[in-house]
Structure formats: C-alpha cells, structure tokens
Amino acid sequence: MKERPIRLQDLLGLLHHLYPPVLAESWDNVGLQVGDPVAPVSRVLVCLDASEQALDEALRLGVQVILCHHPLIFQPLKRLSPVDETGRLLFRAVREGVAIVSAHTNLDCAANGINDWLAAALGLEKTAPLQTGGGDLLKLVVFVPGGYEDRVAAALFEAGAGAIGHYDSCSFRTDGVGTFRPGETCNPFIGQAGSLERVRETRLETVLTREVQGRAIQRMLKAHPYEEVAYDLIPLANQRSDVGLGRIGCLAQATTLGSFANLVKQALGVPQVRVVGDLDQKVSKIAVCGGSGASLLGEADRQGADVLVTGDVKYHEAFSARSRKMGLIDAGHFGTEHIMVKHLAEVLRQAAAARRLELQIEELQGEKDPFLTV
Ligand SMILES: [Zn+2]
C-alpha cells in the first residue's frame, strides 16, 4: 500500500500544535506566508530569515518549505511585483514552488521556544515567563445530567482542558435543577417533546486555553448525552503563567556583570556585546528576551532582575537602565535569536519522528548578522 504523502498542511498542524498561532501578538503575521497547503513536503529548511540565500539553499537541497522566524509578509501587500525585495522573494518562491512559513511571536512566547532556549544557553535555572499575557484563558461551564459528569469531564480533560500550572483535571461541580421543554420535532434524551421537564443536573466548570478550545468543545459535545447542550464559554482576565514574552531565572552561582557579559558573548557566539552598568556589580537574577526586548526593562526591574539580556537596545533604553542601576546587555537581535535554528530544527525532528512523519529537517548554514564588528 502506498502511503499518503505528507502535505504542507500536516507540517503546519505539527508546528502549530507546538507553537500555537493564538500565542502570537495581534500585530504579527505567523504561519503560512506562501504556498499550497496540499503540496507534498518531504524536506524543510529552518532559518532566521527568508532571504535569497535561504531560497538558493532550499533549491540546492531540494527543500519544499522554508521555515523562518521573521515573517516575510509583514506589512499588508498592495501589489505583488518583483520590483521590491519582498516581492522578488515571493515571486521566486512561487515560481520555484517553495513554500514559506513563519513562526515568530508564537515561538517567542511558547514553552520550549526561543526565550527558553536563550535562557538555557545562558545557564539560567528556575525560569518563568517575564511578561505573561492575559485574555488567553477561558472558562467553560456545561450542564450535565446526573451520571454523565465523569464522562463529559474526562472528554474535556483528554482534550487539554482543566490544566492549571502543573495540575491537570481541574474542575468544579455543583448540583442543581435544570428545566427545558423540547420542541415538537425534538428527540430528547430525557423527557418528551412538548412537555416541560425538571432534571437534576450538574454544573461542571473548568478552564481551557484558546489553543485547545476547538478540540475540547468538539469532544465535550460528543461525550454529552443531550441533543442540545447548554454551555457557556467565558473569556477570563487571568494571566497564564506558562507562556509569555521573555524569561526570568537565576544563575547557579552569582557572578559579576563583567563575567556574565563574557559568558553571554561566548554562549551566543557573538563577536561583541554592549553592556550598561557597573561591570563589578554582582548579578544572579537574569531576565532575557530574544530580538528587541528592551521594552521589558521595567518589568525585569519590577521582578528584581539584576540584568536584562536582549538585542536592539537604543540610547534612551540604555540610559533608563543606568538610572535604575540595572545591568543591560545587548547581544544583538541576530545574536539572541539565531539559536532558534538548531533548536527548532531539533524540536521538529523529534515531533515528526513521534508522529511517524518522514520529514527531513535541514538547518540553513552560514546565515550571518547583517552587522559587522570592526
Ligand atoms: Zn526577531
């Protein structure tokens, strides 16, 4: 029997299961940039930026998908023409049949994403997200007839609902009386068409994230015995503690800002870092944010970080760090993000193997920081 080829949409499913697009910032454009979702895929090239170099390498390696961090289509396009740089790349990608997919702020915020990799590379322990997002949690309340509570709850938990921190299967149940009158055309599980019913029901409530919402509701409806299920899905203002921008954690041993800056330089393989602060000051609590994260300086300070490591630091941000007596290390946008290539490639290899998907994941070699140090 011939196996069904892996399609681009299978790869997107795998990627978005690991790095859900709902975690991306509202201004971002993650996921499919160019490509036909049903096109077959056997080889993927992971890189930081979709570039001419990445496309050349994709063609040389016979790769069908470029998976990059920075979205190729960011500003809304007014035309598709090879007269500008983005247009040229898009044109070539379409002509050559190479798809382009981006994992950007979803990869920044998710667990086992860029900021976890960055924190681990710098030796941080006991890390937590630096800036957690709100509005991503939902409460589900469903009314279940007596005897069916466990079945409906199990279906919800299996779909990923009911997780709070490191606890799973969290729910609350209250008993009460539900009333309903089935219409003439109904085929009710309890009672008869046209007559008012009073039934002992349990109000079952649990929490869920937007990533699992679709699957959880689908499974809940399947496990519920009623023809018409009464349920409420309520957005919560609670913060999620498991995902968010940046990370904060501790060094196993306190050191000086100067030595830590050297450690950053070596760990990230960058030719230089820029440092704000007293090089002799002791540091142990460290905040990190790959890319441009200087806007998290205030949050890092509030949480007692001694240093923030990020890229793209501007003069006034450096000035602000100095006024706060906080250390600030600029290891460059490229320097703090390029580690995503090897890590994302490895995560995908393992995820593909676990799902028995025959995907070959390549890493773009020779990608360089546009900035030179002289
Ligand atoms: Zn970036």
Structure description:
- The structure is a single chain.
- It is built from twelve helices and 15 strands.
- It folds into three domains: 8-104 and 339-363, NIF3 (NGG1p interacting factor 3)-like (Udp-n-acetylmuramoylalanyl-d-glutamate--2,6- Diaminopimelate Ligase, Chain: A, domain 1, 3-Layer(aba) Sandwich), CATH 3.40.1390.30; 111-132 and 244-331, 3-Layer(aba) Sandwich (Udp-n-acetylmuramoylalanyl-d-glutamate--2,6- Diaminopimelate Ligase, Chain: A, domain 1), CATH 3.40.1390; 136-236, Alpha-Beta Plaits (2-Layer Sandwich), CATH 3.30.70.
- Helix 2 links the parallel strand 2 (43-49) and strand 3.
- The mean pLDDT is 95.
- The longest helix is centred in the C-terminal third of the chain and has 15 residues, at 340-354.
- Helix 6 runs antiparallel to helix 7 (210-223).
- It is of the alpha/beta class and 374 residues long.
- A six-stranded mixed β-sheet has the order 5-10-12-13-14-11, with helices on both faces. A five-stranded mixed β-sheet has the order 1-4-3-2-15, sandwiched between helices. Strands 7-8-6-9 form a four-stranded antiparallel β-sheet.
- The chain has helices at 8-18, 52-61, 85-96, 105-109, 114-121, 149-158, 210-223, 257-268, 297-302, 315-324, 333-337, 340-354, and strands at residues 31-34, 43-49, 65-70, 99-102, 124-134, 137-145, 172-180, 197-209, 231-236, 239-256, 274-276, 282-292, 307-311, 327-330, 360-363.
- The termini are far apart.
- The structure holds zinc ion.
- Zinc ion binds at residues 70, 291, 333, 337.
